Amino acid sequence: MAPNHGLVHLKEYDIKDSNVELINTDIDHKVKYNSAATEPAWNDGAVGLSPGLFIWRIENFTVVPIPKDSYGHFFEGDSYIILHTEEIESQTGENKLIHDIFFWLGAHTSQDEAGTAAYKTVELDEFLHGAATQHRELQGCPSDDFLALFPRLTVRRGGVASGFRHVEEEAQEEITTLLRVFKQSTAVGGRDTVVVHEVEPTWQSLDEEDVFILDKGDKIWVWQGKGCSPMEKAKAAQVVHDMTLAKHVDVEVISQTESRSYRFVKELGGEEEDLAEGFHAARPIRSVGGSGESRPRRLFRLSDASGELTFELVNEGGEASEGDLDGNDVFVFDDGGKEVWVWEGSGASRVEKAMWLKIAQAYVRQLQSQDEESQAYLLPIANVREGRESSAFRRAIQAV
Predict the structure, then answer these.
(1) Which among 114, 147, 240, 316 is placed 20 to 30 Å from 194, CA to CA?
(2) Which part of the chain is the Gelsolin-like domain (predicted)?
(3) If you classify domain 298-398 with CATH, what class do you get?
């Protein structure tokens, strides 16, 4: 029986239209019902108390820890929560812990999983006494801060509850898998992340700037595009080494510049004449702000001081700074099409704070509605609080 035969596919989360906060919905009540007074995932003696990286996957409304040897390995049918805790020196000279929580939504995650990840992210922030910066991350456009957490990021097909296959659970049958290996630059400390992303096993997926690994079950092929970097070649070699630890198969490495490169293309259904045009395929993920959809930096105020909730433009195209923020309200900052930040003043009302994600998503949907070809819906969204601003937020709002 095929891995997904007879399974019911859950409703996928629509990243363009759906609200992942889902407060007072059936998902909200299910999560509350399935949550004990104390969430075991947060109470392992290290979460919030020690620096480091912690990752959980959402499985049937439950937060399940991921083994550390699987960190950086994600499935596109799942939702995850990632906590990064770092120890820094405060202005008083004392060491303190700062926290960033990312909820990562795979391209084919279910509505239930996405809603649970969002809800549990808020719960984890409460566990950390509201000290964390919260980030919504989408598979197709991860933020630089998320990418910087992983020297190597792997995204494979599959999902816990989606009815898709999980690679580690596949039967020993011949399954053709094509992996694309490419370098993704970030704006964080000059660090780069090498991404290993599963793509459609067809010659149209090839790009001459990257390296591709084709697993045919009984043989592994490595195709090096003529423009690939030494780092991509080295990482591809590591991936192949890991793959051959589990099974002993032949490995053949081919450069695009070799005449026998056609053999690789043929394995993917291509013909010899397809070599003439070269290979240019869009990458499965893009850099923040890398879509060319730049626009003026904008700062908005969310306030209920008048008795009604209002959302008004404060600054557009100018040099927004932390001095423009008022601790009595909530502000939404669009970093020129790179990321959307929500800043919560310490004196903001409960209503203003509770609306942060809904407002940010409504803003992104409004941008999307202005241009159906836009990829605004992929924008990372992050939430910070007055007095606990992350270094990433300060870099964004102080940039000129």
Answers:
(1) 114
(2) 60-146, 193-245
(3) alpha beta
